[in-house]
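G., before I forget:
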Amino acid sequence: MKEISCKLLVIGAGPGGYVCAIRAGQLGVDTVIVEAGKPGGTCLNVGCIPSKALIHAAEEYEKIRHMADGRSPLGISLQGPSVDLAATIAWKDGIVGRLNSGVSGLLRKARVKIVQGRAAFRDGKTVEVQTETGMQVIRAEMVVIATGSKPVELPFLPFGGPVISSTEALSLTSLPKKLVVVGGGYIGLELGTAFAKLGSEVTIVEAAAQVLPQYDGELVRPVQKRLQQLGVRVMTGAKAKGLASGGDALLVETSDGKEQKLAADKILVTVGRRPNTNMAGLDGLDLDRSGPFLRIDDQCRTSMRGVFAIGDITGEPMLAHRAMAQGEMVAEIASGLKRGWDKRCIPAVCFTDPEILSAGLSPDEARRNGVEVRVGQFPFSANGRAMTVLAEDGFVRVVARADNNVVLGLQAVGAGVSELASAFALAIEMGARVEDIAATVHAHPTRGEGLQEAALKTLGHALHI
Ligand code: FAD
Ligand code: NAD
């Protein structure tokens, strides 16, 4: 048995853990990171990156199919496209592999020691890791738990056979003819749309009254319209009940209380993710919970001295960039710097078609907080650049305090709006007023001009509508 000591031990090398370790290393903190799987965690291996690769491949294929059908208004035509899903997945795996090596390289550059294996707590400051070369004991002055999350499994629809999670969906090498998706949230809609574009017959079963219930109806409407165009069947107010005997169909209770059988080659269950709190020895520590998650304060400290938690294990929003921001902050605290969570917003993007972007408060959220707001909205149908790329569906929306025009929220729905996330977050983080956005020269012709126009609209004098 080998024993090592360090100042900072990070458990889990997902976006939270690896960013924390890199930053701590940069600051000269003696750091060890333990990872049971591959560097990069859910996000890099089976989440953000592979899903966006598949979404891109599906978009490209759908565009070409559209042209082959003779439906392209651009005057382009071609014949007989096909997709080799195994090749697509191999391309995606290549990207993941490059990024795995990239993360390991960055950790080494920051002089972080990487231990490969599953960590188990002996006590709050000591873990055991079964490595390829034997048991390793690691003692640390401070510990960061960054073990992430995993897909929720429905007890009446356990994973296995035709029932798959996003992890398996991202590695399919042949296209399911009929795909039923249970859960019309982030993953269900992102992947459901991608498979529909690749040629699967897709049905989405969503328990709430609307798909993407976390967003307001106005933002979701263009996505619903596009799902319809793609031939995706959306069943809302519907609940999955279990696998039909024979395993080739899903039993569903529809909104009117009737039971329906949906034939399926694969059933993709995407009904949320739950924190990885099942790490051996974790229950023996005195860590307060917040529901299923670890409770943290505004420095990501848990209820145990010297033990921090970051990322998905600490709750919503379960997003990679939140985990990274927490990781960076905790590294700086561990190095002795004064830091606290002082972010004004965490932008969220849903990579549907079209994409949805939200930063800060929606009009309803602001009103529920008792704030009087003014709202300005600018449609992409009035934006020249959007017209030239056939992306006229959607809009940009500004939500500002009615009394002083401070921007409280920015939302958009439209093709490629994810790239506006930086501008949205920066405006809110810098405490911008509507006038600041309106007075900024926006390059022409870009879809970003929609932000300036929405700001002008909020002030009552939009120029292009
Ligand atoms: P994770 O990334 O889950 O990493 C935790 C790591 O800890 C894992 O590598 C795991 O192997 C390791 N680990 C666990 N237990 C132990 C142990 N005992 N010992 C050692 N190691 C251990 N977010 C976005 O912001 N944008 C997106 O576009 C996006 N798309 C997504 C698409 C899909 C299909 C999925 C599933 C998720 C997506 N997410 C997205 C969410 C994002 O992946 C997570 O929010 C993010 O990965 C959380 O980071 P984390 O560091 O907390 O945990
Ligand atoms: P989600 O919370 O986004 O959506 C789950 C959906 O399933 C909800 O709409 C819910 O109403 C529905 N549902 C729950 N139980 C059901 C049932 N029995 N039958 C039918 N519908 C049911 O969860 P997800 O899509 O699994 O994603 C998990 C998390 O991963 C997200 O919350 C997000 O934090 C993260 N993620 C982010 C991105 C991104 O940032 N683009 C992409 C993918 C995942």
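The pocket of nicotinamide-adenine-dinucleotide (ligand 2) is lined by residues 154, 182-188, 190, 205-208, 213, 239-240, 270-273, 317-319, 348-351 (CB under 6 Å). The first helix runs from residue 15 to 26.

More on Monday.
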